[in-house]
């Protein structure tokens, strides 16, 4: 199966975006993929903001993108756009860091007014980086992302069903087998 880099562009340690990604990571792992999480907030601010391409943490992050077959990019929506933290990382990656890769864009936010941020803000930047395929993305409301009693991320049923379909399409685009797609097609 594929190696997937799961990137959270949220600056928050208690991020709903990261919770959403970890929830999807579990499904991808169940499908046999290797998933490598990357929380951009853990990278040194001085390297990101100072555009230090040679900083060891940035070099390691760049190598993770190179090694991945697929990339899931998650971001909170701030002021109708993806996070500045995510932008800082994307700016430091090589121009074609996504060349040949399958990409799944995801966003979280407090209002459905931000749903177009994926297609009008994030998708053009990702497309400029040369991916082989960008699968349809998904926006999830913050209120639909919680933490279960056992501490694991939980997603409200309606959103969870949609996310299963989005994740399965992404997995299928990577060449993986999925229950939902196998049953319908």
UniProtKB/TrEMBL annotation:
UniProtKB keywords: Flavoprotein, FMN, Oxidoreductase
Domain NADPH-dependent FMN reductase-like: 3-144
Stretch forming the signal peptide: none
Stored InterPro entries: Flavoprotein-like_sf, FMN_Rdtase-like_dom, NAD(P)H-dep_FMN_reductase, NADPH-dep_FMN_reduc_SsuE
Gene3D superfamilies on file: 3.40.50.360
Lineage: superkingdom: Bacteria
Keyword Oxidoreductase: yes
Protein name: NADPH-dependent FMN reductase-like domain-containing protein
């Amino acid at each position: 199966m594929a190696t997937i880099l799961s990137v959270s562009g949220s600056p928050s340690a208690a991020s709903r975006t990261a919770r959403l990604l970890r929830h999807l990571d579990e499904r991808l792992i169940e499908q046999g993929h290797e998933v490598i999480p990357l929380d951009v907030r853990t990278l040194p601010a001085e390297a990101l903001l100072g555009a230090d391409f040679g900083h060891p943490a940035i070099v390691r992050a760049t190598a993770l993108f190179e090694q991945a077959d697929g990339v899931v990019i998650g971001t909170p929506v701030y002021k109708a756009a993806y996070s500045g933290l995510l932008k800082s990382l994307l700016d430091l990656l090589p121009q074609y860091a996504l060349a040949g890769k399958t990409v799944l864009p995801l966003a979280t936010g407090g209002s459905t007014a931000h749903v177009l941020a994926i297609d009008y803000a994030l998708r053009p930047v990702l497309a400029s980086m040369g991916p082989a395929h960008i699968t349809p993305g998904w926006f999830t409301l913050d209120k639909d992302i919680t933490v279960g009693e056992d501490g694991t991320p939980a997603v409200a049923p309606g959103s969870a069903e949609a996310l299963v379909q989005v994740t399965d399409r992404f997995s299928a685009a990577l060449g993986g087998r999925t229950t939902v797609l196998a049953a319908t097609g």
